[in-house]
Amino acid sequence: MRFLVSVRYVVAAFGACVFAAAGTVGAAAPAHAGATGSSAIDSFTYEVRGATVKIPVGCFLTHTVRGSGKRITDQFAGADCVGVAATFSQFCNWRIDFAYADTNNKTYKTSRGATHAECEGAPLRNAAPQTLPAYGKTCAKLYVSGKLRAVQCHYVTK
C-alpha cells in the first residue's frame, strides 16, 4: 500500500512540473539540440459527411525538432488531447504542413502534408531529415477540413 502512495506522489509531482512548464506553451523556442512545444487548438466544429464533429477545449498541436544549427535530424508534429477531449476528439480530413521562414520571417519553403480523409484521435506527421538554407524558424501547421486550426513554431539558430 505504501508503494501505491509513493507512486501517486511521483505522478502528482510530475503533473505539477508539466503544469509549471505550461507557461512556455505555444512560445517559439531555440532549437539548438532539440525542442518540443505545444500550442492550444481552439474549440471548433466542422462537418464530415453530413455530421457535425466538435473538437472541445483540451487539444494541442505538439511539435518536436531535433538537430544542430541548420541541420534538422528529426521533426514531427501531431495533435494531442487531454481529459475529456482525449476521449471524444476525432480529427477528420486533416493534414500537417511544415513551413520554414528566414530571420526576416519570410517563408521560403512549405512541405505540404497529405490530407487524411480518415478520422483519427491523434494525427501525426514526420518530416524527413534536412539541412535548411537559412536560419530562422520551422513551424508545424494543423489543418482540419482545409482550415488552419493551430500553428506551433521553433527558432532555428546557431
Morphology call: elongated
Would you count the extended β strands for me?
12
- Major sheet, described briefly? 5 strands, mixed
Number of domains: 1
List the strand order in the largest sheet.
1-12-11-7-8
Could you characterize the architecture of this molecule?
The protein has 158 residues and is an alpha+beta fold. The chain has a single domain, classed as Immunoglobulin-like. The protein is 16% helix and 51% strand. The chain contains two helices and twelve strands. Strands 1-12-11-7-8 form a five-stranded mixed beta sheet, with no helix packed on it. Strands 2, 5, 6, 9 and 10 form a five-stranded antiparallel beta sheet that branches. Strand 7 (94-102) and strand 8 form a beta hairpin. It is elongated and about 45 Å long. The protein starts with a helix and ends with a strand.
Topology:
Blueprint: H1 2-21, E1 29-30, E2 34-41, E3 44-48, E4 51-55, E5 59-68, E6 71-81, H2 84-88, E7 94-102, E8 107-111, E9 124-127, E10 130-131, E11 136-144, E12 147-156
Parallel strand pairs: 1-12
Antiparallel strand pairs: 2-5, 3-4, 5-6, 6-9, 6-10, 7-8, 7-11, 11-12
Task: Note the main attributes of this structure.
158 residues; alpha+beta; Immunoglobulin-like; five-stranded mixed sheet; five-stranded antiparallel sheet; 16% helix; 51% strand; disordered N terminus
Care to give the gist of this entry?
This protein has 158 residues and is an alpha+beta fold.
